[in-house]
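Input sequence (295 aa), recorded before submission:
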Amino acid sequence: MRSSNPVFSRRGFSRDNGTAGFNAAPQAGAPATGANPYAEGAAANPYATNPYAQQDTQYGAPQAPARSGAMTIDDVVTRTAMTLGTVVLGAVLAWVLLPVDEANLGKSYGIAIGAALVAFVLSLIQSFKRKPVPALIITYAAFEGVFLGVLSSAVSTYISPGVVAQAVLGTMCVFAGVLFAYKMRWIRVTRRFYGFVMAAAMGFLLLMVVNLLFALIGGGDGLGFRSGGLGILFGVIGIVLGACFLALDFKQVEDGIAFGAPREESWLAAFGLTMTLVWIYLEMLRVLSILSGDD
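Predicted structure, token format:
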């Protein structure tokens, strides 16, 4: 099973990087080949390439012997900190250097839209590459930060000065809560869970696209999914979906570490987690902005 995160949805962690033991048969005491989503020669198992295969009856990720050059949780934490740090730095610089006052509003918005498009293109390029490219991921994070910085500055200036801090705090709480629930095994990431999240995500995105089309054609907020009571409802749904994405990403990382994914794959994990956190922050900012605007 692959994560619903766009970074992980196309494939699992790469299996052809040549890391010793990653493509090899399991060691003594490790799971059988059919239960190892990264082991080669498991064609008889229809879920052989599925990192969540056979987890319905045994939840815990299989453990594999430590291997030289394999990804560790420290690698994931370090790369994620670097990627998120770049997003934060880009946001701070954009907030300071691209003010959204009346004199610079058009220029700032134009740069923000351009940065968002560049970040989107870079994310697509990385998603279709066989291996993570650190420079590409960091560049994506920088442009994403510029977009978030200008957007956050606009919300803080024209809606509520404290809403950005609340959105950041809310995003951190969601991350910490999902991580705690995942480690406590309150969240069981199974094939059924994955299927439910994917179906919900596709329905959510389809409604957002339809709403955008109606807004472009008729003006305003289209079907009203971005404001008012419906906006709050769909914003909360978006946050919940983001939390589910986090659980799927945690599982993907856990399985990658358990089966000895190459260390460079920690960049892919950092990229995916960053995209999910950006999603949650944007939905959190939307909900809080609507609530602040109604006061």
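Checked by second reader. The CA atoms of residues 33 and 41 lie 8 Å apart.
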